[in-house]
Amino acid sequence: MKIIVLTGNQIRHKYYANFLSEKLEVIGLITEPHADYFKLQRDSSPLVKHHSKNLKQYEQGYFGQYDSYPSCEHLKIDASRINDDEYIEWAKSLNPDYILLYGTEILNNKWCNTFENKIINLHLGASPTYRGSATLFWPFYNDDLDNLGTTAHLATTEVDGGKILKVIKNKISYNDNYYDITSKLIKKSMHEIPNILKKYDSGKIIPAIQNKSNQKFYYRKKDFTEECLRIVMEKYYYEK
Asked: What does each C-alpha distance from 213 to 14, 88, 128, 143, 149 come to in angstroms?
């Protein structure tokens, strides 16, 4: 199968692209700057600033084995340009079997219609229970770790709302803190994508329509506050 990867420009995104290239035939890559979702909170809060520093440190530890992207046709685009016609047409010209999506802006109707049922998104949250922003954070805040997970789903223009291929969860080790738990879950999820894709392609996975009545939470960026972070850090973080 020939694959195009659409992703961000952070350490974890490089890891994802390289891992996929080891398991699948990656023929094209589009990367865009990762959105700085919590800049306002970070600039006004020492605690949020420390949290951001920790995120980078743990990301380097878990995902930092690659310094660059895999070798293939690669477009590095400006922020919020993923839906420009020229990039959709470029992807179309490569004639991929599937597009794997992780860490970009929401794709528009033209992407979804051009590659109908061929774009698989990795959403860092267990859909439909957790949708929106920072969806790996809020299960900790709600003491709801049974619903801590990620979702491989078909991409649609509805945020995290496409048909589900698999919800991925991970065992939590006793000595793991918040950053260990989330990093291990993300890494496991990345590693499962090639098998999920192959099972979907062969018909062994039938996409399931999301039951919206099971949606418990939909968080926005503004919901992430210093007080919410303090509550989570007091319960789930310790220095190593």
From this structure: 36, 34, 8, 21, 18
H-type alpha helices, the chain: 11-23, 39-44, 46-63, 85-94, 109-114, 138-141, 178-201, 226-236
Our separate counts of H helices and E strands in the chain read: 8, 9
Other residues' Cβ atoms within 10 Å of the Cβ of residue 78:
9
Global pTM value:
0.94
Task: Assess contact for 178 and 143: CB atoms under 8 A.
Answer: no
Q: Record the tokens describing residue 92, joined without a space.
A: 């179309």
For 142-164, how does the pLDDT look when each residue is reduced to its tens digit (9 = 90+)?
A: 999 999 999 999 998 877 679 99
Residue pair 130/217 in contact (Cβ under 8 Å)? The answer is: yes
Q: How far apart are CA 134 and CA 228, in angstroms?
A: 12
d(CA 102, CA 44): 29
